[in-house]
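Appendix C: a fully annotated inverse folding record. The material below is reproduced so that readers can follow the format used throughout the book. The structure is listed first as tokens, followed by the designed sequence.
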């Protein structure tokens, strides 16, 4: 559909581009450790953008009706904003693994066997175990009226675990997940099981939470909700409209020297990996923060054109929305601290493992107050027990300027690779 669509668009618009995405997702679900269901869903969608009389418009469809889709995109352009969009041309694509044949060929029974393995390993823990194994296979094709036509295949396997135990009137829930283009390895599954066992061992004792301003260690599973403020502040649209607190500091130190943040779509087999973005711009590794200094801003085509910047290959398109800039694989680079060093740096404080979703008072500005759904008391550099639910609060940008330690072990949480970190001055209440 995509090439006939663009041929029609070329006759009625100054320029046009489109992305066509297909997806087949198979999901296996376990409840209380037992498989209870499996299903497969199919999806395909096209997003079309046109520029007509200097204005851009977009439209999307899940059915093959190119004339209707083009009519709606042109109608959108009539009401759109002026743009100076410049489309990328055909170019050699970098090599990156986005599809693994072993994962694509896995049968329903083989996917279920992953759940059986983890269930059997945790059988002695007396937990209510929920498991979801989701395997998605798809293709992304990007083309435009400047001659670009490129596609790549995608496989993604997400293995998610929720282990729960009733303990002294409280339902303790520990969650973990693995995600990548391939099936999780036996080693990765064993490490996941070991982590869950350790958490339940730590939870054998309860402890009082310290209140007030504390040293707090945030584990990788707790960092994505906090780093969302940094991600948003590094988006070109935020810089264009003056809302980003980081755009004004480009080239200057905003954070601790311990912090280096990179967006890398060229890492093999990771959830955000791709050879080009949804607008056809070739992917590349982009440093965002280097030893505390703001080094890069991410752009889609439209925003880059407005500010005279080079597109960074971060355009993302869903079927029905206009392109937006978004990170791919965000990596907070590892530091030198071992796990014992992390605990010793905290000394007397908290380790936060899971944050509940909440409302940020000032998302881009970094102000937050979020309940810690799972947190551990640290005394004398050792974890001494599970604390009741508390709220942690502060300003992400200020706290990242007060990093005390960055762990040496990275953990992938979806498309985010994070080590544990320790920050000073987190409000706990």
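Designed amino acids, in order:
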């Amino acid at each position: 559909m995509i090439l006939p669509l663009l041929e029609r668009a070329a006759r009625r618009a100054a320029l046009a581009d489109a992305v066509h995405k297909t997806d087949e997702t198979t999901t296996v679900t376990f409840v209380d450790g037992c498989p209870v269901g499996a299903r497969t869903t199919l999806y395909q969608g096209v997003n079309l953008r046109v520029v007509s009389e200097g204005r851009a418009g977009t439209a999307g469809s899940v059915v093959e009706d190119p004339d209707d889709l083009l009519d709606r995109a042109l109608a959108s352009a009539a009401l759109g904003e002026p743009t100076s969009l410049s489309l990328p041309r055909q170019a050699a694509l970098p090599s990156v693994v986005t599809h693994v044949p072993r994962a694509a060929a896995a049968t329903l029974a083989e996917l279920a066997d992953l759940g059986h393995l983890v269930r059997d390993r945790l059988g002695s823990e007396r937990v209510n175990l929920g498991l979801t194994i989701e395997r998605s296979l798809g293709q992304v094709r990007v083309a435009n009226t400047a001659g670009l036509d490129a596609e790549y295949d995608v496989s993604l396997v997400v293995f998610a675990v929720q282990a729960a135990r009733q303990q002294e009137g409280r339902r303790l829930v520990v969650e973990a997940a693995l995600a990548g283009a391939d099936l999780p390895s036996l080693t990765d599954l064993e490490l996941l099981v070991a982590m869950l066992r350790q958490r339940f061992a730590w939870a054998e004792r309860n402890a009082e939470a310290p209140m007030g301003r504390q040293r707090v260690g945030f584990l990788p599973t707790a960092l994505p909700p906090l780093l969302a403020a940094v991600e948003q502040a590094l988006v070109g649209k935020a810089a264009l409209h003056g809302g980003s607190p980081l755009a004004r500091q480009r080239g200057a130190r905003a954070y601790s020297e311990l912090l280096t943040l990179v967006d890398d779509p060229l890492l093999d087999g990771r959830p955000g990996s791709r050879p080009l973005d949804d607008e056809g711009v070739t992917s590349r590794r982009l440093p965002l923060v280097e030893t505390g200094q703001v080094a890069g801003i991410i752009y889609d085509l439209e925003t880059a054109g407005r500010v005279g910047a080079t597109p960074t290959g971060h355009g993302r398109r869903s079927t029905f929305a206009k392109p937006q800039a978004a990170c791919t694989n965000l990596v907070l680079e590892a530091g030198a601290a071992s796990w014992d060093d992390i605990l010793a740096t905290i000394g007397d404080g908290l380790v936060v493992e899971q944050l509940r979703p909440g409302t940020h008072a000032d998302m881009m500005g970094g102000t937050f107050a979020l309940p810690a759904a799972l947190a551990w008391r640290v005394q004398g550099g050792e974890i001494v027990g599970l604390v009741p639910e508390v709220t942690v609060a502060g300003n992400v940008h200020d706290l990242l300027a007060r990093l005390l330690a960055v762990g040496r072990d990275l953990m992938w949480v979806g498309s985010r690779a994070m080590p544990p970190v320790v920050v000073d001055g987190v409000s706990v209440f």
